[in-house]
Amino acid sequence: MTAVLPIYLLVDLADNDQWPAKAGSVNEFVRGLAEDLGRDPQLGGRAQLTVVTFSDVVTAVLSRHPVAEPPVLTVLEPGGPRWFGNALQMLGKLMSQDAGDGEPADPPLVLVLADEEPGAADSWEPVRAELLRSHPGLTLGVIYPVGGRRWAADEHGVEDVLPLEAARLIVRDHVGAPGAEKKKEWEGAFTPYSVGDVGNAARTVQPRPDDTEWHRRDTVLDGVIIRDRAEQPVLELRAASVRGLSHRHYGTVRQDEYGYRTTRDGRYLVVAVADGVSNSKLSHKAAALVCRVGSDAVAKDLETTAPEDLDWPDLIAWLSGEIVALARSVPAPRTDGEEPGYREVAAVMAATALFAVIDLHPAGDALTAHVFAVGDSPAWVLRDGTQWEPLLEVKNSGEGVATSTTRALPLRSRTAGMATRATVRPGDVLVLMSDGISDPLGDGTGSVGRFLADAWREPPAPLAFAAQVDFARRTHDDDRTAVAIWVA
Amino acid sequence: MDHSGAKLLPFYLVIDVSVSMAGDKLKAANNIMPAIIDALSENPILSDKVRFGLIDFSGDAQVRLPLCDLLDPNLSLPALTTRGSTSYAAAFSTLQREIEANVAQLKADQYVVHRPAVWFISDGEPTDGEAAWRKAYTDLTSSKAYPNIIPCGVDKADLTVMGSLIHPSSGPKKMALYMMEPGHDPAKAITGMAEILISSMIQSGYSLAGGSTGTILPDPANLPSGIKQYDPDDFV
Hints:
Chain A is an alpha+beta fold. In chain A, 28% of the residues lie in helices and 24% in strands.
């Protein structure tokens, strides 16, 4: 038994200056469409036409009419204001009813004849999404009637053709060219990542630029293969730093940063991640300094010192001094002619610092990573693609209510910070991150941990990595940075 | 449910529904929650993190809305009605029980819970004995999950009594009291206090996004007319 092709024509009857000529032109269109379809050898025997008119009321004026016979048309009258959302909803019910009678049917085709776009208060989008969901393969095409305008639901790019010709093209697209596979000119799609409850913010925030810092980017990313001196791949690196929803909403720059480089002799890879302290306005400058100047300084020190002998407290003290020097060079109003001290600078620009030195000479099949951190930017190793192992202490794991104190540069004290060493084998992933990611990661055993372990089993495409770092999850709106390293 | 690291700001509105609140004051009180919902709808970054609870009290205290997401589409707001006398002891002990249970549950669900803020609105003096309600208050404020308390007094609320409810009453994170100025319309004052609450909520949420914690109170220069702010230092 051949499958029915259900075609629904949704006709806008809202009163406007197209009447009374519109009644005639719509009926002419319906007659013409039925004739066209009736003549088609493929579709003539199985297409069924339903015509539903809408304005503020929704009425079916023709039901499942086989196109082989000429349709009997009613006299159409103009109605009240149009509501697409309501019309699509009623149409959806009708379509489900029709589908429910058990006859084999192709995915339905819905053609909308509309004079104007839906108004701002007309909530048609969720209804359309629901229709597309409950009728897989459904095509929704919009055709201008006499003098109409295009609106966003139209996916066909049909312009400047008569309505009947537009209908023909849409029907042909929906059904497919006879015999042949439709040849695609391009491929690809993008779906944003989310883990669990997405929250209102992820659905509604519209990003604003920071008009005090036009030249700082919302998102930066990298994806490279690092080779040894014999040009053999040693490791793959993916990095991304993404502005969080909160900063996007309030129009503040991204305050996270990352940096990486090898030493000149190609022996070591130096990685840096820095998280600018949020309530300090220029913290992104501190974060950028830690990453750029800091990784260069570490690379230079490695020319004469082995990684296990690096004097990290000395580096941090020096970097702190550099941050203060930078602050002093930024013009700021001061009434007493004094230079700002460490504490004053820290109130205006401060950042955490996380460094890793990876020895590109493997020890067996594994690489050794030397990690040092000041503040809450943690380092993890994903073991065997399943188990998240923290390399440094997890924050806020105590009792009572939460507080947000964090250590950050510039620091006067020389004892701040923690150092550790880790072995990274093939199948492991070393990940340095800011707390925008480690907070939702928690202890690594929750849904975020499982998501990231799945996403990062193998090095993903760099843009995909950035999209994964930007996953949506309710209340997690901080800037996010991750640098991930896989042993080749 | 897995909510590792998700931040939460709990707010509690504790409101006097003794018989004296009947009429316009009660109407103003019933408009507080809808006004908060409107403000949250415009603040998506904040609304994801805020949970609200409503307790009313007269001779006894009842939880009218357990701590919840006010933008939940299935939520129905309770209508406040008046009854009985004015027991501050009942209010504080019910509040303490609720806060302890709520915070424990949220932490068990792995939320990161910030210090709750309590907005306490009364239109008259307590009718229960001072020893009883002072004890209930001390138990509340010495609990590990003690809240920040911002008292608001209208009509016949006693200035000194209300002033003694500010918590913390000293230090960098001290709170304040909002009192209706004598002769002003109490219903309008209640509406004004709701505006202060909303402003504080929004500013606290913004400051949380910037990494600080704590309940931020609006600039005293910008208060609605008919309302005066008192700091703990104003009371000897």
